[in-house]
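Researcher: Next sequence.
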Amino acid sequence: MVSKDNKVVVVGAGLMGTGIAHAFASSGFVIDLVDTSETALEKARIAIESIIDGGVERGKISSTDAQSAKQNLSVSTNLGQSANGATLLVETVSENLAIKQAVIREADAVMADDAVIATNTSALSVTEIATAASAPENVIGMHFFNPVHKMKLVELVLGLATNEATIAATRQWCNALGKTSILVNETPGLTTSRMSAMLGNEAMWMLQEGTASAEDIDTALRMGFNHPMGPLELGDLTGWDTRLAVLRYLHSMLGEKFRPCPLIIKMVAAGRYGRKTGHGVYKYDENGKQILGSGLKGSAL
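Model: Next structure:
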């Protein structure tokens, strides 16, 4: 059974690692966030404390619980030390098979015998990643969504060797975080990435063809289908460079229906990735806020 005495390690202090570490710390778990960069770790700590403080301001969490959550979090550049005796590791390092396998191989040597090793990958093979572990049956995909503190879904991705005990334990972890989990057999794009890529790509085809403006396409999905964000807004948030990489992978694996829209290719070539560059389908101010009326009106860049 999952217990607050269990030690959790999250590897990778990027956007997703920061959100996942916050989820565990604010749920009462002792959590080590590990990264090779001290700068990234400090940035992550500040971001986590900001989310916690925001929860206090909105009355979502008491000041006592907020202080406890902050104390639950430790940061480290020493994976071997942090992973020693851990019962759960979630890796969120870059989408590179060799890097992920190296992290798992190092941590696996010192973790508890029945520890669960989870990967947050949305594109790579859980089965291949699991070959770095001494017990591949203990490895599973644990795909969180951004922003983690707001998004309730976790996709649990089953590799070829993943066993029932690992599935059951990981579902308990998700329940303890207040998340809803679904089971997905390993497949290109899983469920959400595949559907989101298709939707975003089709929205860009519509924009390129001049079917409607960016604002109107996004409004159609928000108001007509109750989506919290339109597909073009979401693409800007995710990053069109990331979206293009996913589409190219899905195109190679699943065929023509995932061929990237030329407008995405053109935007990426121009460095217009979205919010992180200040310009994508929309323009953004220095605070990352979308500038009203800045969306593309057709195929013109």
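Model: The CA atoms of residues 218 and 230 lie 4 Å apart. The chain has two domains: 7-185, 192-277.
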